[in-house]
TrEMBL record:
TM ranges: 15-35
Domain of life: Bacteria
Keyword Transmembrane attached: yes
Organism of this sequence: Simplicispira metamorpha
InterPro entries linked to this entry: RuvA_2-like (IPR010994)
Alphabetically ordered keywords of this record: Membrane, Transmembrane, Transmembrane helix
Name the UniProt record assigns to this protein: General secretion pathway protein K
Length: 286
Protein backbone atom coordinates (compact mmCIF):
# COMPACT_ATOMS: atom_id res chain seq x y z
CA UNK A 1 0.00 0.00 0.00
CA UNK A 2 1.27 3.46 -0.84
CA UNK A 3 0.70 6.22 1.67
CA UNK A 4 -0.41 9.58 0.28
CA UNK A 5 2.24 12.27 0.31
CA UNK A 6 1.15 15.68 1.59
CA UNK A 7 4.45 17.42 1.10
CA UNK A 8 4.23 19.92 -1.64
CA UNK A 9 6.98 21.00 -3.88
CA UNK A 10 9.34 23.96 -3.85
CA UNK A 11 7.87 26.96 -1.98
CA UNK A 12 5.42 24.78 -0.04
CA UNK A 13 8.29 22.78 1.45
CA UNK A 14 9.97 26.03 2.49
CA UNK A 15 6.84 27.31 4.21
CA UNK A 16 6.35 24.00 6.01
CA UNK A 17 9.99 24.04 7.18
CA UNK A 18 9.65 27.60 8.50
CA UNK A 19 6.46 26.62 10.33
CA UNK A 20 8.22 23.65 11.92
CA UNK A 21 11.15 25.85 12.98
CA UNK A 22 8.76 28.38 14.54
CA UNK A 23 7.02 25.60 16.45
CA UNK A 24 10.34 24.21 17.68
CA UNK A 25 11.45 27.71 18.72
CA UNK A 26 8.20 28.36 20.57
CA UNK A 27 8.45 25.02 22.37
CA UNK A 28 12.04 25.84 23.33
CA UNK A 29 10.96 29.16 24.83
CA UNK A 30 8.14 27.46 26.74
CA UNK A 31 10.46 24.76 28.10
CA UNK A 32 13.05 27.36 29.11
CA UNK A 33 10.36 29.36 30.90
CA UNK A 34 9.07 26.29 32.73
CA UNK A 35 12.59 25.31 33.81
CA UNK A 36 13.28 28.86 35.03
CA UNK A 37 9.97 28.91 36.90
CA UNK A 38 10.67 25.57 38.57
CA UNK A 39 14.16 26.70 39.60
CA UNK A 40 12.75 29.95 41.03
CA UNK A 41 10.13 28.03 42.99
CA UNK A 42 12.79 25.67 44.34
CA UNK A 43 14.87 28.65 45.47
CA UNK A 44 11.84 30.29 47.10
CA UNK A 45 10.99 27.08 48.94
CA UNK A 46 14.60 26.76 50.09
CA UNK A 47 14.68 30.36 51.34
CA UNK A 48 11.35 29.90 53.12
CA UNK A 49 12.61 26.72 54.78
CA UNK A 50 15.83 28.40 55.92
CA UNK A 51 13.86 31.40 57.21
CA UNK A 52 11.47 29.19 59.18
CA UNK A 53 14.30 27.16 60.69
CA UNK A 54 16.25 30.32 61.58
CA UNK A 55 13.19 31.92 63.18
CA UNK A 56 12.67 28.79 65.29
CA UNK A 57 16.32 28.90 66.40
CA UNK A 58 15.99 32.57 67.30
CA UNK A 59 12.84 31.84 69.30
CA UNK A 60 14.67 29.08 71.16
CA UNK A 61 17.62 31.36 71.94
CA UNK A 62 15.33 34.04 73.37
CA UNK A 63 13.46 31.48 75.46
CA UNK A 64 16.76 30.19 76.89
CA UNK A 65 17.79 33.72 77.89
CA UNK A 66 14.37 34.42 79.41
CA UNK A 67 14.51 31.15 81.34
CA UNK A 68 17.90 32.08 82.76
CA UNK A 69 16.71 35.58 83.70
CA UNK A 70 13.63 34.17 85.44
CA UNK A 71 15.58 31.47 87.28
CA UNK A 72 18.47 33.68 88.40
CA UNK A 73 16.46 36.82 89.07
CA UNK A 74 18.98 38.70 86.95
CA UNK A 75 17.50 41.97 85.65
CA UNK A 76 20.12 43.80 83.53
CA UNK A 77 19.94 47.57 83.94
CA UNK A 78 22.00 48.15 80.81
CA UNK A 79 21.93 46.96 77.21
CA UNK A 80 23.75 43.65 77.15
CA UNK A 81 24.49 40.83 74.71
CA UNK A 82 24.28 37.16 75.64
CA UNK A 83 25.95 34.41 73.62
CA UNK A 84 23.72 31.37 73.18
CA UNK A 85 24.17 28.07 71.37
CA UNK A 86 21.25 25.85 70.43
CA UNK A 87 21.47 22.71 68.28
CA UNK A 88 25.01 23.68 67.35
CA UNK A 89 23.99 27.13 66.13
CA UNK A 90 25.80 30.01 67.88
CA UNK A 91 23.67 33.13 68.33
CA UNK A 92 23.78 36.44 70.16
CA UNK A 93 20.70 37.70 72.01
CA UNK A 94 20.57 41.42 72.74
CA UNK A 95 18.75 42.22 75.97
CA UNK A 96 17.61 45.82 76.23
CA UNK A 97 15.56 47.37 79.05
CA UNK A 98 12.75 49.26 77.34
CA UNK A 99 13.65 52.36 79.34
CA UNK A 100 16.51 52.67 76.83
CA UNK A 101 13.99 53.65 74.17
CA UNK A 102 12.01 56.86 73.77
CA UNK A 103 8.50 56.32 75.08
CA UNK A 104 6.09 58.08 72.73
CA UNK A 105 3.39 57.92 75.42
CA UNK A 106 5.33 59.75 78.12
CA UNK A 107 8.35 61.52 76.60
CA UNK A 108 8.34 65.30 77.16
CA UNK A 109 7.94 67.63 74.21
CA UNK A 110 11.64 68.60 74.17
CA UNK A 111 12.75 64.96 73.92
CA UNK A 112 10.25 64.26 71.14
CA UNK A 113 11.45 67.34 69.28
CA UNK A 114 15.05 66.10 69.56
CA UNK A 115 13.94 62.68 68.29
CA UNK A 116 12.23 64.18 65.24
CA UNK A 117 15.09 66.54 64.53
CA UNK A 118 18.07 64.20 65.05
CA UNK A 119 16.73 60.78 64.06
CA UNK A 120 14.02 62.08 61.74
CA UNK A 121 16.30 64.53 59.97
CA UNK A 122 13.85 67.43 59.86
CA UNK A 123 14.40 71.09 60.73
CA UNK A 124 14.02 72.34 64.31
CA UNK A 125 10.78 74.25 63.71
CA UNK A 126 9.07 71.27 62.05
CA UNK A 127 10.41 68.95 64.76
CA UNK A 128 8.93 71.14 67.49
CA UNK A 129 5.56 71.25 65.68
CA UNK A 130 5.50 67.45 65.34
CA UNK A 131 6.45 67.00 69.00
CA UNK A 132 3.56 69.19 70.11
CA UNK A 133 1.20 67.36 67.73
CA UNK A 134 2.35 64.03 69.18
CA UNK A 135 1.46 65.11 72.70
CA UNK A 136 -1.88 66.42 71.48
CA UNK A 137 -2.76 63.12 69.76
CA UNK A 138 -1.74 60.94 72.71
CA UNK A 139 -3.73 63.19 75.07
CA UNK A 140 -7.00 62.73 73.20
CA UNK A 141 -9.73 61.23 75.35
CA UNK A 142 -12.24 58.51 74.66
CA UNK A 143 -15.96 58.50 75.52
CA UNK A 144 -15.15 57.71 79.15
CA UNK A 145 -12.72 60.61 79.47
CA UNK A 146 -9.58 58.45 79.48
CA UNK A 147 -6.49 59.37 77.50
CA UNK A 148 -6.30 57.20 74.39
CA UNK A 149 -2.50 57.26 74.09
CA UNK A 150 -0.54 55.08 71.68
CA UNK A 151 -0.98 51.32 71.84
CA UNK A 152 1.98 50.55 69.56
CA UNK A 153 4.88 52.32 67.86
CA UNK A 154 2.98 52.28 64.56
CA UNK A 155 0.42 54.61 66.10
CA UNK A 156 2.86 57.46 65.48
CA UNK A 157 1.39 57.43 61.99
CA UNK A 158 -1.75 58.93 63.54
CA UNK A 159 0.19 62.14 64.14
CA UNK A 160 -0.42 64.66 61.32
CA UNK A 161 2.85 65.12 59.44
CA UNK A 162 4.35 61.72 60.33
CA UNK A 163 4.57 59.70 57.11
CA UNK A 164 5.94 56.23 56.46
CA UNK A 165 9.43 57.44 55.54
CA UNK A 166 9.77 59.42 58.77
CA UNK A 167 8.30 56.61 60.84
CA UNK A 168 10.80 54.15 59.33
CA UNK A 169 13.67 56.32 60.57
CA UNK A 170 12.24 56.42 64.09
CA UNK A 171 10.70 52.98 64.57
CA UNK A 172 13.73 51.22 66.11
CA UNK A 173 14.28 54.02 68.63
CA UNK A 174 10.81 54.32 70.15
CA UNK A 175 8.35 52.31 72.20
CA UNK A 176 4.80 52.67 73.42
CA UNK A 177 5.15 50.16 76.25
CA UNK A 178 8.05 51.24 78.50
CA UNK A 179 5.74 52.38 81.33
CA UNK A 180 8.51 54.48 82.83
CA UNK A 181 8.94 58.17 83.48
CA UNK A 182 9.15 59.10 79.81
CA UNK A 183 12.86 59.81 80.07
CA UNK A 184 15.68 57.53 78.91
CA UNK A 185 18.12 55.29 80.75
CA UNK A 186 21.38 55.88 78.82
CA UNK A 187 22.83 52.60 80.09
CA UNK A 188 20.09 50.78 78.17
CA UNK A 189 19.87 53.01 75.11
CA UNK A 190 20.94 51.82 71.65
CA UNK A 191 23.38 53.99 69.74
CA UNK A 192 20.63 55.75 67.77
CA UNK A 193 18.96 56.92 70.99
CA UNK A 194 22.32 58.00 72.44
CA UNK A 195 22.73 60.18 69.37
CA UNK A 196 19.39 61.86 70.12
CA UNK A 197 20.46 62.38 73.75
CA UNK A 198 23.79 63.83 72.52
CA UNK A 199 22.04 66.43 70.38
CA UNK A 200 22.92 64.72 67.10
CA UNK A 201 26.63 64.16 67.79
CA UNK A 202 27.09 60.81 66.01
CA UNK A 203 30.81 60.51 66.84
CA UNK A 204 30.16 61.00 70.55
CA UNK A 205 27.24 58.54 70.49
CA UNK A 206 29.40 55.85 68.85
CA UNK A 207 32.17 56.39 71.40
CA UNK A 208 29.71 56.22 74.31
CA UNK A 209 28.15 52.99 73.02
CA UNK A 210 31.57 51.38 72.51
CA UNK A 211 32.76 52.36 76.01
CA UNK A 212 29.55 51.07 77.60
CA UNK A 213 29.76 47.74 75.75
CA UNK A 214 33.21 47.19 77.24
CA UNK A 215 32.24 48.37 80.72
CA UNK A 216 28.85 49.92 81.59
CA UNK A 217 30.52 51.96 84.35
CA UNK A 218 32.53 53.82 81.68
CA UNK A 219 29.48 55.55 80.20
CA UNK A 220 29.95 59.29 80.78
CA UNK A 221 26.35 60.51 80.81
CA UNK A 222 27.43 64.05 81.71
CA UNK A 223 27.92 64.75 78.00
CA UNK A 224 24.24 63.98 77.34
CA UNK A 225 21.21 66.20 77.88
CA UNK A 226 20.45 65.68 81.55
CA UNK A 227 16.81 66.73 81.13
CA UNK A 228 16.18 63.59 79.09
CA UNK A 229 17.84 61.09 81.45
CA UNK A 230 16.48 58.71 84.07
CA UNK A 231 18.43 55.72 85.36
CA UNK A 232 15.33 53.91 86.63
CA UNK A 233 15.01 50.21 85.85
CA UNK A 234 12.03 48.45 84.32
CA UNK A 235 10.65 44.88 84.23
CA UNK A 236 10.04 45.31 80.52
CA UNK A 237 12.68 44.23 77.99
CA UNK A 238 13.14 43.92 74.26
CA UNK A 239 15.08 40.78 73.34
CA UNK A 240 16.49 40.36 69.87
CA UNK A 241 18.21 37.30 68.39
CA UNK A 242 20.06 37.27 65.08
CA UNK A 243 20.48 33.99 63.20
CA UNK A 244 22.91 33.83 60.27
CA UNK A 245 21.79 32.39 56.93
CA UNK A 246 23.89 30.63 54.31
CA UNK A 247 23.91 33.69 52.01
CA UNK A 248 25.30 35.92 54.82
CA UNK A 249 21.86 37.36 55.43
CA UNK A 250 20.14 37.12 58.81
CA UNK A 251 16.80 36.38 60.36
CA UNK A 252 16.07 38.74 63.23
CA UNK A 253 13.67 37.53 65.93
CA UNK A 254 12.39 40.06 68.44
CA UNK A 255 10.21 39.76 71.56
CA UNK A 256 8.96 42.48 73.88
CA UNK A 257 8.55 40.95 77.33
CA UNK A 258 7.32 41.87 80.79
CA UNK A 259 9.23 39.80 83.34
CA UNK A 260 6.51 40.09 85.96
CA UNK A 261 4.73 36.73 86.31
CA UNK A 262 1.42 36.26 84.55
CA UNK A 263 -0.53 34.60 87.36
CA UNK A 264 -3.65 34.29 85.24
CA UNK A 265 -1.88 32.01 82.77
CA UNK A 266 0.63 30.65 85.26
CA UNK A 267 3.63 31.88 83.25
CA UNK A 268 6.86 33.42 84.63
CA UNK A 269 6.71 36.25 82.09
CA UNK A 270 4.42 37.84 79.52
CA UNK A 271 5.26 38.34 75.85
CA UNK A 272 3.22 41.26 74.57
CA UNK A 273 4.84 41.64 71.13
CA UNK A 274 6.75 39.27 68.86
CA UNK A 275 7.95 39.51 65.28
CA UNK A 276 10.70 38.35 62.98
CA UNK A 277 12.06 39.51 59.65
CA UNK A 278 14.80 38.74 57.16
CA UNK A 279 17.77 41.05 56.77
CA UNK A 280 19.47 40.97 53.38
CA UNK A 281 23.21 40.23 53.17
CA UNK A 282 25.47 43.28 52.94
CA UNK A 283 26.22 44.52 49.45
CA UNK A 284 29.53 43.42 47.97
CA UNK A 285 32.34 45.82 48.75
CA UNK A 286 30.55 47.20 51.84
Amino acid sequence: MKWPCFVGSGPQRGIALIAVLWIVSALSVIVTGVVHSVRSEVRLVSVARQSTEAAALGEAAIMLVLQDMAASGNRPAHLTKVEVSYQGQPMVVEVMPMTGLIDINRAPVALLASLYGVAGGIDAKSAQTLAEATVQVRSERDARGREVGFEAEQDLLRVPGVGYDLYARLSRLVTAQAQGSGRVNPQAAPEGVLRVLAGGDAVRATALAAARDKNPADLDSTVLNGEFLDNASSPRYRLQARVALADNGQVVVEHSVDLRPDFRLGLPWRIFHAEHWMQAPPAKGV
